[in-house]
Amino acid sequence: MGLKDSIPLPPFSPKDISRFWSKIDRRSDSECWLWMASTSPQGYGQFGVGRKRKVSPHRLAFFLGHGYDPSPLHVLHHCDVRRCMNPLHLFAGTCKDNLVDCSLKGRMHQGDNHYLRRHPELRKRGEQNNMAKLTTADIIEIKRLYADGPLLQREIAVMFGITKGHCGDIIRGTRWGHMK
After folding, report:
1. Tens of pLDDT along 145-174?
2. How far apart, in whole angstroms, are the C-alpha atoms of residue 19 and residue 27?
3. Residue 128: beta bridge partners?
4. Burial letters for 29-64: b for 16+ Cβ neighbours within 10 Å, e otherwise?
5. How far apart are CA 4 and CA 2, in angstroms?
6. What is the pLDDT of residues 32-91, one digit of tens each?
7. How far apart are CA 109 and CA 113, in angstroms?
8. Closest by CA position to 35, among listed 51, 14, 19, 11
9. What residues have CB less than 8 Å from 70, skipping those under 6 apart?
């Protein structure tokens, strides 16, 4: 959530509201209503209004469900599902409320208590990570080239378009360590 989340919502036409609801998989009141359209890299929905304005769809869902613009407050999720648009799962809170909620749900970096440390099965590793530049086959080939031949790490790194340090980390297992 950023500064744009505290900016008042723009006016919406009936067409905007109809288009908004068409992008949500609405279910029973107790279930999450999932946003089925564009999402940010952080996993929150994105909704365009007019030519240049984007609003967080959970803020619009809060507005439509509760009848008032939550600005300057943040809109938080009881269910902790970023794509949820069910107004019953949304509540307004201050920045501090948002941080406390985030911490209580284990979403803040807190050493061994971090969410992904407690749920390592959810961590995206290797090619599953959308930031990965290499494939599993590349890693196998890098390790094979280093083990088999007289090639230096920097030569292997050039072949795969990575740095010498990155290549060394792969060989030592500090990167792509799940592939032993």
Report:
1. 999 988 999 999 999 999 999 999 999 988
2. 17
3. none
4. eeebbbbeeeeeeeebbebebeeeeebbbbbbbbbe
5. 5
6. 999 999 888 888 899 988 777 888 999 999 999 999 999 889 999 999 898 999 999 999
7. 8
8. 19
9. 59, 62, 63, 92
Asked if residues 33 and 82 have their Cβ atoms less than 8 Å apart, the reply is no
Query: Global pTM?
Result: 0.58
Query: Encoding tokens for residue 35?
Result: 């946003």
- Rounded to 5 degrees, what angle do the CA atoms 120, 117, 141 make? 50
Domain boundary assignment for the chain: 3-120, 126-172
DSSP state string for the chain: --GGGGSPPPP--HHHHHHHHHTEE---TTS--EE-S-B-TTS-B-EEETTTEEE-HHHHHHHHHHSS--TTSEEEESS--TTB--GGGEEEE-HHHHHHHHHHTT-S--GGGSHHHH-GGGS--GGGSTT--S-HHHHHHHHHHHHHSS--HHHHHHHHT--HHHHHHHHHTSSSTT--
Q: CB 178: neighbour CB atoms within 10 A?
A: 11
Place of tokens 């999402």: 39
User: Looking at the domain 3-120, which fold is it?
Assistant: Homing Intron 3 (I-Ppo) Encoded Endonuclease; Chain A (3.90.75)
How far apart are the C-alpha atoms of 44 and 84, rounded to whole Å?
9
